[in-house]
Amino acid sequence: MILLQELISIDQFQLFDKLSTKLFLRLCVDLAAIFILIRFIYFPNYKRTDLFLTFFVFNLIIFLITYLLNKVEMSMGAAFGLFAVFSMLRYRTEGISAKDMTYLFLVIAIGLIAAISKGSWIDLAIFAIIILGVTHLLESGWLIKKEHSKLVSYENIKLVAPEHYEALLADLKARTGLNVHRVEIQEFDFLKDAAIMTIYYY
């Protein structure tokens, strides 16, 4: 029993020595990239903190699982298969918007890249900078004008008719104070003389 414990202890120390530098450098780059993505890109745009735990834990668990699996001979096809499986995960108790899902895919992708990349940590940092840079450009509105949307209930159903579209936009602008430029009708409620619509504004 004592001999077995000594052997296990020796193997653990040898494994730690082999993995320490590579593992912690990759983990540092991964966590730094996720911190910048969530704290300085996601939060300033959406002002939500309830998904912080989801993003960080998903990234960390996927990084560790993939890194350990990567010690076994694994093809690129298997890696993409893992990405597909992890990408399908979502919480059933609460709906996640398309943009939140996009950030979830980003944290999954960064974790996978950090775990299976064959290059050095410098190469990994360059990949992370490219992902962060492109995401920041798209979110900042420098490349394209950023459009926002809200779901509203509108009771003046007479203006919902196609021939009154311009009057509908003018009424929505006056009521909301937003620069509404287009509207999508989601459903009608003729019992309440109301319509559920999505308004888009800059």
Automatic annotation (TrEMBL):
Transmembrane residues, as ranges?
Answer: 23-42, 51-69, 103-119, 125-144
Q: Keywords of this protein's UniProt record, alphabetized?
A: Membrane, Transmembrane, Transmembrane helix
Q: One Pfam family of this protein, by short name?
A: DUF4956
Signal peptide location in the record? none
Q: What is this protein called?
A: DUF4956 domain-containing protein
Organism, scientific name: Emticicia soli
